[in-house]
C-alpha cells in the first residue's frame, strides 16, 4: 500500500483533468503564445489569457493585467521585493515565514538596501499583533506575512493585518503558497497589495507554475528583460503589465494544467474541499492522541487550520520515523525544518524540526487508519 501525506510540499495525485489538459497541449497544439500568428500559437495564447482571467476572478484582482505568471511563489516574491523595495525602506515580517520570504529579505538587508524587523510568534504560530502595530516606522514600506504555515497549519488574520497596513499607508504582501486554492482570498476585501502563490500545491496544478498579483496602486521595476512577444520593434522592454514582468517564453504547458486545476476546484466547490480536508485532519488528530509516544505541535483542531500536522517523539528523531514510514510502510511524509527555520525556533522544535503529515483532497480515512496503525507498530518495536 502507498499513502501520500506530503501535499503541503506538492499535491498528489493531480486531478485527471489536469493530466488530460497537459497531454492535450503537448499532443495537439503545443505552440508559443504571442510568438507568431499560426493556429497553435493563437490557441496557446487563448489558454494563457483565459487562465489569467480565471485567476483574476478567483482572487478578485483589480485587473487581469495585474496577474503575472511566474515559475513558483519564491520567484514571485523575489520579483516583488526586488522590484518594489528601495534603499532606506523598512520591512516588517514574522517568525513563521518560509525561506522564500526570509532569504530575499535578508539578502536585501545584507546589501544595505532595507531595514528588517521580524515579529515574534507564540508556540502556536500566532503573531503578536500589538508588537506588529508598534513596529511601524516612518520609513516602513512593506509588511510581509504568510497566510498559512507549512509547519503547523496555523493561519494568520490577513484581513486584520491588511486593514492595519492600509491605515498606515504601507504595502501588504501575503505569501499564499499554502492557502491559494484552499482558503478563499480576496485581495480587495483583505487589503492585499501583493499576493504571491504557487500552482502545484492547493491549486492542484503542475510544478513550475505560480504567480504574482498586484493591486493597481503598486508599481514595480522590471527584474528580467528580454523577449515578450509584444513591442518586438523596440530594443527596450515593454513598460505595461503583464508584459513588463513576464520576459521569455511562458510555461504554457504548466499554465494549461494550472487552469484545469482551478476549474477542478470550482467544480468541486471550495467549501466541499475544505470540509473534506478538515474532517480528515480532525480524524487524524483524534487518532494520533492515542499514541503516547508522539507529541503534536500547533493549535490542534481550529476552524481555520490547514490540513497540516507536525509531531515529534522522544524515541526517534523526525527523519528516522519518516524513513521507516517510507521504506517499510510506503507512507510518504516530510521531516526536518521545511524551509522555515525561524518558525521552528518559535515553536521550540529547532534544529531537528518535526515530522509533518499533510493530507489532501484525495486522502481517505483508510489512508489515515493505515498510517496510525503503522506508527503504533513502529513504537511498539522501539
The Cα radius of gyration reads 21 Å
Q: If you consult CATH, what is the topology of the largest domain? A: Aspartate Aminotransferase, domain 2
Work out the helix count.
11
**Assigned CATH class of the largest domain:** Alpha Beta
**Series of H and E elements:** EHHEHEHEHEHEEEHHEEHEEHEH
Q: Are there runs of 5+ residues with pLDDT below 50, and where?
A: none
CATH architecture of the largest domain: 3-Layer(aba) Sandwich
Number of strands: 13
Beta-strand percentage range: 15-25%
Order of strands, widest sheet? 2-8-7-6-5-3-4
Mean pLDDT: 94
| Fourth-tier CATH superfamily name of the largest domain | Type I PLP-dependent aspartate aminotransferase-like (Major domain)
- Helicity, as a percent range: 25-40%
What structural category do the secondary elements indicate? alpha/beta
What kind of sheet is the major sheet?
A: 7 strands, mixed
CA(first)-CA(last) distance: 23 Å
Question: Per the principal axes of the C-alpha atoms, what is the gross shape?
Answer: globular
How many domains, in number, for the residues? Answer: 2
Amino acid at each position: 500500500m502507498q499513502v501520500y501525506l506530503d501535499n503541503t510540499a506538492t499535491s498528489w495525485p493531480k486531478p485527471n483533468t489536469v493530466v488530460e489538459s497537459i497531454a492535450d497541449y503537448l499532443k495537439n497544439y503545443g505552440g508559443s503564445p504571442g510568438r507568431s500568428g499560426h493556429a497553435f500559437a493563437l490557441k496557446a495564447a487563448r489558454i494563457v489569457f483565459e487562465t489569467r482571467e480565471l485567476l483574476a476572478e478567483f482572487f478578485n484582482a483589480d485587473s487581469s493585467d495585474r496577474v503575472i505568471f511566474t515559475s513558483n511563489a519564491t520567484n514571485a516574491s523575489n520579483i516583488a521585493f526586488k522590484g518594489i523595495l528601495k534603499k532606506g525602506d523598512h520591512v516588517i515580517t514574522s517568525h513563521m515565514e518560509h525561506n522564500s520570504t526570509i532569504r530575499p529579505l535578508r539578502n536585501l538587508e545584507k546589501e544595505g538596501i532595507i531595514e528588517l524587523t521580524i515579529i515574534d510568534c507564540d508556540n502556536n504560530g500566532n503573531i503578536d499583533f500589538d508588537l506588529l502595530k508598534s513596529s511601524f516606522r516612518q520609513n516602513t514600506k512593506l509588511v510581509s506575512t504568510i497566510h498559512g504555515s507549512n509547519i503547523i497549519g496555523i493561519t494568520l488574520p490577513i484581513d486584520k493585518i491588511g486593514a492595519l497596513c492600509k491605515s498606515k499607508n504601507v504595502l501588504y504582501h501575503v505569501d499564499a503558497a499554502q492557502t491559494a486554492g484552499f482558503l478563499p482570498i480576496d485581495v480587495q476585501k483583505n487589503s492585499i497589495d501583493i499576493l504571491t502563490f504557487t500552482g502545484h500545491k492547493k491549486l492542484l496544478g503542475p510544478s513550475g507554475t505560480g504567480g504574482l498579483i498586484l493591486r493597481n496602486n503598486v508599481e514595480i521595476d522590471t527584474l528580467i528583460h528580454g523577449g515578450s512577444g509584444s513591442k518586438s520593434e523596440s530594443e527596450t522592454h515593454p513598460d505595461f503589465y503583464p508584459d513588463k514582468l513576464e520576459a521569455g517564453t511562458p510555461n504554457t504547458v504548466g499554465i494549461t494544467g494550472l487552469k484545469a486545476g482551478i476549474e477542478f476546484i470550482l467544480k468541486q466547490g471550495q467549501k466541499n474541499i475544505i470540509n473534506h480536508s478538515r474532517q480528515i485532519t480532525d480524524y487524524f488528530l483524534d487518532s494520533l492522541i492515542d499514541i503516547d509516544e508522539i507529541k503534536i505541535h500547533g493549535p490542534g483542531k481550529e476552524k481555520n487550520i490547514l490540513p497540516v500536522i507536525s509531531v515529534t517523539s522522544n524515541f526517534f528523531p523526525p527523519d528516522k520515523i519518516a524513513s521507516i514510514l517510507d521504506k517499510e510502510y510506503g507512507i510518504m511524509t516530510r521531516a526536518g525544518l521545511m524551509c522555515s527555520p525561524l518558525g521552528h525556533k518559535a515553536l521550540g522544535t529547532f534544529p531537528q524540526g518535526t515530522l509533518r503529515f499533510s493530507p489532501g483532497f484525495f486522502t481517505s480515512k483508510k489512508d489515515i487508519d493505515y498510517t496510525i496503525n503503522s506508527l503504533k507498530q513502529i513504537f511498539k518495536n522501539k
